[in-house]
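This section describes the prediction task in plain terms. A model, or a person checking by hand, is given the sequence of a single protein chain and must write out its three-dimensional structure as a string of tokens. No templates, partner chains or ligands are provided. The sample shown here is typical of the held-out split.
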Amino acid sequence: MGESSVAVCVSGQKVVIRARGRMTFVEAHPLRKFCMTMMAQGIKRYILNAQRCTSMDSTFIGVLAMVSLKGKGSGVRVEICGADKQVSGQILGLGLKRVFLLHERCEGEDGPAAELDERGERGEVRKTMLEAHETLAEADAENEERFKDVLTYLRESAQA
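The expected answer:
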């Protein structure tokens, strides 16, 4: 499938995020920065087009959950469309069914998209990873146990 990429298209009051390939902490950091900027500008609807996404790691899923949960009180919603059984299973396996709206099919294309390719500094990426995993633990109690070693490691590295 080639290299992984995340492209975004802002259209009115929504953002369409196109994920291609394997989504990891590498793609999660610039996505987090972008979404937090968009939330600060009042954007409320985030649609992840996962039709070409082969898998998502816990950091990437945690960043999506972070957007959903941080904006919950102000009407923000995160929708995931076109995810195959593996990707849907990764999301649902983390107990996040109530955090996202899942759609089998995606709406039409939304025009040109800009690729998010900024790679953060190591410390920034670690902070994103920590926040993402803390969000997952907050969203579902089972994730606290599931990611306890990861959380311990990331918290210790943040202090170093």
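For orientation: The CA atoms of residues 81 and 103 lie 4 Å apart.
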